[in-house]
Structures are given as C-alpha cells and as structure tokens.
Amino acid sequence: MLWWTVRDVISAVVPLAAGLVVFAFVESWRPWLGPLLVALAIVDVVHAAVVPSLRYRVHRWEATDDAVYALSGWFVREWRVAPLSRIQTVDATRGPLQRWLGLATVTVTTASASGPVQLVALPDAEATELAARLTAIVGRTAGDAT
Amino acid sequence: MTWQRLDRKVIAVDLVRAAVSLVPTAIAAGVLGLDPGDAWPALVVAVVGVLRAAADLARWATTRYRITPDRVEVRSGLFVRNERWIARDRIRSVGSDARLTHRLFGLRVVTVGAGLTGVAGATAALRIDAVSAATAQRLHEMLDATAIPSEEPDKPTGHLLAQFEPHWVLYNVLSIWVVFAGAGLTWGGYWLGRLFGYDALDHARDLAGGAHTGWLIALGAVGFLLLGCGGLVVGFSSRATGTSG
C-alpha cells in the first residue's frame, strides 16, 4: 500500500512542480495557472489519501498447489486463475521504488490470450519464495502438453 | 550449477561496436576535415552507438543465470531488477544464433523458448546473450536431452521435395518490393552521403539544371527500379547461401 502511495505522490508532485516552475517564470500565465494549480493540488491530496488504500483493498491473490489466483478491479471485478500445469515462466520484477521498499511484482505467464497474471507489490522474500515454490511445483506437475 | 555470468568477450563485442560507430565521425572530421556541425548525422551515429554499447555493458555486468535440475533462472537489470524462472519441463525449444560481431569472437546467443506468444509470433522466454560456442553447445545438451551432440550435418533421410534453384531470383525481383527496396536504398544512400557532409540532392539538382523534366522523371524511375532490383538480388542470394551453407 505504501508503494501505491509513494507512486501516486510522485506522479502528483512531478506535474505540480513543473506547473510551479512555469508559474514562477511566465508572468502572463499566472492569472489562470494559479487557480488551476491549487485545484490540482487539492485533487492530488485527496487522491493520495483515498486511492492507494482502495487499491490495496481490491487486490487479492492466492497460490495453491493447483493454480495461482488473482483478484482485482474496483467496479468490474476480475478474477483470474492460472493453472500450474499451464505456467510457462514466472518473473519477479523490482523497479527502483519497489527495491527501496523491499517489494516485488510477480508475473505468472501462461500462453493465455488475455496475458499474464500479475501479483503486484508482494514483499520481497515472499515473492522469491513464491516463485521458487511455483517453479518447483510446476516441475513436479506434468505439463499437459499444451 | 552455480550462478554463471555471460562471456567476458561480450565486452570486446561492445567495444568493437562502439569503435565502429565512431568511424563515420573520424572520417568526417579527420579525413574530410569537416566542421562537426556539418557532419551532425555522423555525430548522432557516434553518440547512439556509444550509448548502446554502454547499455549493453551494463546488461552484461548485471546478468546472471543458472540451470538447476528442475528450472532455469536468469537475473538481470541495473535499475529495474528482473528475475525469471522457467521450469525445465516447460521448455519447448532451445536455439542459438550469432551475428557477425558475435561470430568474430566465437560467441553464441542461446534462446530458450517456452511457447510464449508475443506481437511477432513466438518470442523467446530466455535470451542468453552471449556465451562462448562451447558453453552454448553445453547448454544445448543440458537443456535439450534429444539434442544432437555434434555439429555435423545429418545424413539426409527421406526423399527430396524441392531444391533451391538459382533462377528463382526472377520471381523474387518481379514484385512490388522492388519499389520499396529502391526507396529504402535511395534513402539510406542519401543519409550515408549526409553523414560525410555530401548532399546528394543538391548535387542532383546541379546536374539536372536545364534538362527536360519528363526525361528526368523517366531516368529517375528507371534508376530507382534498377537499384531496387539490385537490392533484391543481393538479398535473395545472401539468403540462398545462408540456408544452403
């Protein structure tokens, strides 16, 4: 959840800072840019306060010995199941922000037309453990030759 | 198997590539004595070439792979760390290829396919870029139990369905691609000239001064098509020798 907050804050601060720089240097734009920046700041604060916890609440995942499940979505709930017998690769990606917070995003790739199943921002150790466990089980589960 | 690095000779490949990308600038500035401003395309080539080589060096320095009894693992990335696990059971194909700079240093790029689909059809799940030819051979044997251990060509079995005929080049040339190949070669040649501060368009305008427009267009079109034909013939023969050799 912290990751989402930090990410939202960064993506809010960058345009605000750019706006402030313009505000400081271009005098003729000030009359309309000032109110716009204030409105943007308010929206950003509310967004950073509310949205990350909502995001955190709607994301769920589970990995059993048969499949990986991922649940996400606010209004349209999407529940995805990747059977272990179909798993091709398991990836763990850590961006700079995620490394700082000790997180990892695990991507489980099957040959599905709707793309891979993503488990966003798991704790680092858990991600490594999960990936190792998944590939170990995948190694034991006979592939169904698909 | 413990964590392995890519082959050290990749550094040499990168250095060669960086050096090659500096050649146009060296010729433009050293031999032709041009001002850097006039030869800016050469500078662009140099900067892009050096940056790409540096990025490839970073990739070389951060990539590790290992093969365990039940899976293949690769770790890479400088800022964004990426780990990938593939169960050995899910490996569909193992291949290796080498481009010219790789071959100069006896390197091979090993690709491991796991039936992933991408924009351009099947994409490799793993690309080990690059290891020495001997290591590549060993990886092949480790990953693909049915691999043929020698590089000797197989004795032909079964009967011949079709064999390559040189006169097929006619079919290759008689296609719409002549126009595109001509356009591409003209465009490439023009920029190659610009690289050294030679503006072919200006030169052509000088030559053409006063000539009849209709003749010029006809001449241009014929030259264009001939160039395209030449390009397709070269492409065809390089592919033909590539498959038979």
From TrEMBL, chain A:
Keywords: Membrane, Transmembrane, Transmembrane helix
Membrane-spanning intervals of the chain: 9-26, 32-51
The YdbS-like PH domain, residue ranges: 56-131
InterPro entries assigned to the protein according to its UniProt record, in alphabetical order: YdbS-like_PH
Presence of the UniProt keyword Membrane in the record: yes
Pfam families named among the record's database cross-references: bPH_2
Name by which UniProt lists this protein: YdbS-like PH domain-containing protein
TrEMBL record, chain B:
Pfam families linked to this entry: bPH_2
Listed transmembrane segments: 12-33, 39-58, 169-193, 213-236
Record bears the keyword Membrane: yes
Limits of the YdbS-like PH domain: 60-141
Entry-linked InterPro entries: YdbS-like_PH (IPR005182)
UniProt keywords, alphabetically: Membrane, Transmembrane, Transmembrane helix
PANTHER family given in the database record: UPF0699 TRANSMEMBRANE PROTEIN YDBS (PTHR34473), UPF0699 TRANSMEMBRANE PROTEIN YDBT (PTHR34473:SF2)
Protein name, as recorded: Putative membrane protein
Organism: Asanoa hainanensis
